[in-house]
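Hello again,

I reread your note about wanting to compare the complex against the isolated chains. To keep things tidy I'm splitting this into two emails, and this first one only covers the full assembly. Below are the input lines as submitted, including protein chains and any nucleic acid or small-molecule components. They are followed by the predicted structure of everything together. The single-chain runs will come separately.
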Amino acid sequence: MIVQPRVRGFICITAHPTGCANNIKEQIKYVEDHDKINGAKNVLVIGCSTGYGLASRIVAAFGSGANTLGVAFEKPPTDKKTASPGWYNTAAFEQEAAKKGLYARTINGDAFSNDIKAQTIDAIKNEMPGNIDLVVYSLASPRRIDPNTGEIYNSCLKPIGQTFSNKTVDVHKGEVTNVSIEPANEDDIAQTVKVMGGEDWQLWMDALLDADVLAKGCKTVAYTYIGPEITFPVYHHGTIGRAKQHLEQTAQALDQQLQQAIGGNAYISVNKALVTQASAAIPVVPLYISLLYKVMKDKGNHEGCIEQIYRLFADRLYSDNMPVDDKNRIRIDDWEMQDDVQQAVIEKWLQVTTENLENISDIKGYRDDFYKLFGFNRDDVDYNQEVDIELQIPSIRED
Ligand code: NAD
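Full-complex prediction:
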């Protein structure tokens, strides 16, 4: 099939297998071009197929030679429709891992369910060469089915307390407009906390501890975002911020629990704002990211997911001295939050209009990254060529 991008709102409903594979190879090359990390050897990544979770799996495997078990929720291909990009990413990841003789198995299904947790534990017990010494929790989901009650919860991205109005951008039309978002009610907040808070992370760690599949000293890390004041109402102080607060509280409780049980630790890492399928859905944030990219690329310290996570593993999680902030969080958003970077972004934020968008922001870089998420916009792929869309994930085909 010839596969071209088909964008609908803030997602693209097609994905290109070769483009996704080349994205993976590029990320692996980045890691292999850098120093080896004396990190974990058996790693579980929950949310392993795109964005920060995918980068974590790549850094673990190709930076430390780790065996990886990944959990993701991706759409397989049919004879007429392409798979979701995370499917093709995972297929390519497993192929590259196999070339290096690394164990890589993926479980595709709802990580919130008891069944997927049980399948994961089975795989660790029966196939994984050793117990898990790192659990990365990197889910981003709009909904969650409670595994015990069957009730469905939906997360939302709303301010709390009052209506929030600010600039936003239609990335594809290049139009800067004003958006007003009505405040959340108590139910919106509770549902968002239920989906994106720490409850499921805790359930995972309880299940793994109960099954005795965590190695001594096992670490776990989950990701959050804080960002600048302009995005506070819709992020840090909004419904998603409440969920992230819950995630941080969960990290504190888990840290105690793991220390006592196995001498382990739980961490929160605050990461940089980047173009992923999850962040593309947040109002206001894509405009901020476009301006941030411009400032950081001009300054020479722009990073994508792979650079961020390489730094997280090499300079934080597996370095002798791990700096944390006053709330015990790892900060790899440190370069994003530098005063001069934020000052420059604010100046541009005040000026930006539809007319000057292309000049003062990196909207082009944003769009490029957006298309790349789906395997498009790569110079090394001929998008007019037929490609096999029914590519399978090796470890899933064997089942
Ligand atoms: P993403 O959309 O790229 O990845 C989400 C992952 O979760 C995918 O692997 C997907 O398959 C998996 N997933 C979703 N629902 C699932 C389910 N029910 N069962 C199994 N797997 C499921 O998102 P991302 O941006 O990489 O976000 C990952 C984490 O990083 C989130 O906690 C997010 O808040 C955080 N974060 C993101 C940014 C950013 O700018 N993108 C910044 C800081 C922190």
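For quick reference: The two ends are 26 Å apart (CA to CA).

B.
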